[in-house]
Amino acid sequence: MKMESRVFFLLICISSFMSAVKTQEAQVPNITDLTFKNTDFAMNLYRKISNYHDNNIFFSPLSVSTAFATLTLAARNSTRSQILSGLNLDTLEQTEQPELIPQLFQHLQGNITQDGALKLEQGTALFVDLHFQIEKAFSDQIKKYFEADIENVDFGKVDISKGTINKHVKKKTGEKVKEIVTTIEPLTQMMLINTIFFQGAWEKPFNPNNTENSRFYVDKYNIVQVPMMFSTDKFYIASDDELKVKVLRLPYLGGAAMLIVLPDANVDYTIIDDEINAKRFHSWITNMKKTKLEVYLPKFKMEQSYSMHKILSSLGIHDLFRDSANLKGMSQEPGLKVSKVLHKAVIDVDEKGTVAAAATSVSITGYSLPNTFNVNRPFFFFIYHEATNSLLFMGRVIDPTKN
Ligand SMILES: *[C@@H]1O[C@H](CO)[C@@H](O)[C@H](O)[C@H]1NC(C)=O
Ligand SMILES: *[C@@H]1O[C@H](CO)[C@@H](O)[C@H](O)[C@H]1NC(C)=O
Ligand SMILES: *[C@@H]1O[C@H](CO)[C@@H](O)[C@H](O)[C@H]1NC(C)=O
Ligand SMILES: *[C@@H]1O[C@H](CO)[C@@H](O)[C@H](O)[C@H]1NC(C)=O
User: Fold this and answer.
1) How far, in Å, is the centroid of ligand 2 from the Cα of 119?
2) What confidence category does residue 85 fall into, taking pLDDT thresholds of 50, 70 and 90?
3) What is the rounded average pLDDT of the residues 95-104?
4) What does CATH list as the number for 202-299+353-397?
5) pLDDT tens by residue, 261-281
6) Domain 2-200+302-347 -> CATH class
7) For a substitution probing ligand 2, which of 77, 82, 322, 328 has the most ligand atoms within 8 Å of its CB?
8) What is the domain partition of the chain in residue ranges?
9) Exposure string over 250-284, b if 16+ CB within 10 A, otherwise e
10) How far apart (Å, rounded) are the C-alpha atoms in residues 206 and 193?
11) Whose alpha carbon is nearest atom 9 of ligand 1?
């Protein structure tokens, strides 16, 4: 048997008009610095999303960072500096090396995908109206650093352009998203689409024969029945006594892992919202101990959509969405701004009828850790690339029966 988790994410920027930049070489900050900054951005973004939504949350911080990092090659002045500080990348900026940040993203992407075993595909595409000419320097740069494709469409012909874009997205998401664009606004001149698709098989699969309906305590008053998976094996676990959470790592084959953060039974999960940051995330993953454990984890599935332009505005990215936007790097024409950023992410953790490889076993360490990890109440989860500690997805499950 095999436990598979399917995740995909979709980000769409609908913009009116666009264009390019200049560049050079770089070094100083490296991808370790980038992933640390990206992780803090992810936590900031999570907090903003949780201000708007009290239910389940799921998104790909890496996709948002990557999509907006492409726009730094087009943006100028305060439009650009707001994007950099909103993404938490301003301190990596080297004035004499304007292409450093795109280069770091390029290196990170190369590092994440170098191991062919990890089924993770990320792609950026720009659909531009036929009447609009993109500056060559910009299209060259986004191709070089982000492997972004540029395609011309006629937005005047709504049905045809819609079809082209939906076909692209369908292909890039392993046919999981069949129709993303339902309407095209009349003034649309460009769409920026970022997709990410991840498919992971647990290194230690759950036996579906052990899955049983069980109680999940949404809150004091609400209890739901969920299909609860069960496994007993050696797992890496950490205890954060200050935050009153237990942390469990569930590795996937191919170099990624899911980190489950479970607040202690009497702890309000909303308190944890304010406390998670990159430093804490790193301390969890570096302080794990291997121990024999009984794990209970609900099967869950969810699909979430967010209007990212609203959320990013609350992180200080304003000009990009206003008439004062400066995207001169993409086009010399005035009036260019981003009107919409749609973000859609889907996760599906389910059982499949295939055998997955077994993991190596290491001797048990005797710490005062629990011997049962029962995920029967709201929890947080993080899917990350282990070699770089890069956060690919993050989310929160309050009620696993709500999609
Ligand atoms: C990045 O730089 C830091 C020091 O600035 C170093 O400790 C770390 O190993 C470097 N990481 C990589 C991947 O080179
Ligand atoms: C934008 O930045 C350029 C180059 O740094 C500068 O020459 C120009 O005055 C700035 N424009 C505004 C409106 O601040
Ligand atoms: C699950 O149960 C069925 C029927 O008892 C059995 O044939 C099968 O081998 C079991 N699967 C696993 C993975 O143990
Ligand atoms: C990938 O990143 C990790 C951690 O930063 C580093 O140890 C490794 O050498 C990198 N690999 C390549 C091929 O860059």
Assistant:
1) 43
2) very high
3) 89
4) 2.30.39.10
5) 999 998 988 888 888 889 899
6) alpha beta
7) 77
8) 2-200+302-347, 202-299+353-397
9) bbbbbbbbbbbbbbeeeeebeebeeebbbebbeeb
10) 35
11) 32
